[in-house]
Specification:
295 residues; 13 helices; mainly alpha
């Protein structure tokens, strides 16, 4: 079973896509609103689908790992809605790049273990590392399954052959997730070590040392070193997301670089996150909401 669907390669040259990307950001920013998290995420998937269709085969190979990473969220949302919220599943999948077989599995009436087994089979087509996902689901439920699938995917991705810009992006994602894991374990006084993802630029020994010392200020210092942004404990996740913005804007300065495309894809995600914050903050003070926005 494949993860993403096969879409005809129309052979568009990269210059064609780059010229269209430059006008898409404003267009996307104007439409990224919604009355529910599902509607907002569907709009992101729709934009990603449009981008994927415009890419030729070579570009799709470069960005395949990126698109699958963001389809993980669609998979997880569909699993959460399996309890009779089928309209939400259909709304998500109508714009998704997931393969037809995976879509049928997610929208069908099969029991949960059958669905998890199908997801495991799809990812086993990428690597044997994904074996045992069904066992993990039975042991730790949906939350443990989501964490393990995401962590394995990131480790497998960073170990694969990647364009250097894509590799730098995923290394940053891994560092961010590891830092957030340390922060949450300290904040919530969780006694066990966080489950670190291998492959980032921040050494695991440094992360372990901060956790052992229960040193929140050490987390803040690490975030500042990684992002160049001065922050506090309440805004760690926000600073890390803004750090990706800074990194990608630098890579996008070369007009022929993959960073231009990646910057657009990530920028659409940031607009989606901000739209979700605005949705949940309706009725609250607009200045307070503004401080939470990423863009």
């Amino acid at each position: 079973m494949e993860i993403l669907q096969g879409i005809e390669d129309k052979g568009y040259p990269i210059d064609y896509l780059l010229s269209r990307v430059r006008s898409r950001r404003v267009f996307y920013k104007n439409i990224i609103t919604g009355e529910s998290p599902v509607e907002i995420w569907r709009r992101l998937l729709k934009e990603y689908r449009w981008m994927y269709i415009q890419m030729n085969g070579a570009l799709r190979n470069i960005f395949w790992r990126f698109f699958v990473y963001f389809e993980l969220r669609a998979i997880f949302m569909c699993l959460r809605y399996k309890k009779r919220e089928y309209a939400k599943i259909e709304e998500l999948l109508c714009s998704s790049l997931l393969s037809g077989a995976l879509k049928e599995l997610l929208r069908g009436d099969s029991d949960m273990m059958t669905v998890i087994g199908g997801i495991e089979d799809a990812f086993l087509s990428v690597s044997d590392r994904f074996g045992g996902l069904k066992d993990m689901f039975m042991k730790d439920g949906s939350k443990g399954f989501e964490q393990v699938l995401t962590n394995i995917y990131l480790e497998n991705t960073i170990d694969s052959k990647l364009h250097h810009t894509i590799r730098d992006f995923f290394a940053y994602v891994i560092d961010s997730r590891n830092i957030i894991a340390v922060y949450k374990h300290i904040r919530w006084q969780m006694p066990d070590y966080p489950s670190f993802i291998c492959g980032g630029g921040v050494r695991e020994a440094s992360l372990r040392r901060i956790f052992e010392r229960q040193n929140i200020s050490g987390v803040i210092t690490l975030v500042q070193k990684l992002t160049g942004i001065i922050t506090d404990a309440k805004n760690i996740e926000n600073a890390l997301l803004k750090g990706v913005n800074r990194f990608l804007r630098k890579t996008a300065k070369d007009p022929l670089c993959m960073g231009v495309i990646l910057d657009h894809l990530w920028g659409c995600y940031v607009e989606t996150v901000d739209a979700g914050i605005a949705l949940h903050g309706r009725g609250l003070d607009s200045d307070a909401i503004a401080t939470e926005l990423i863009h």
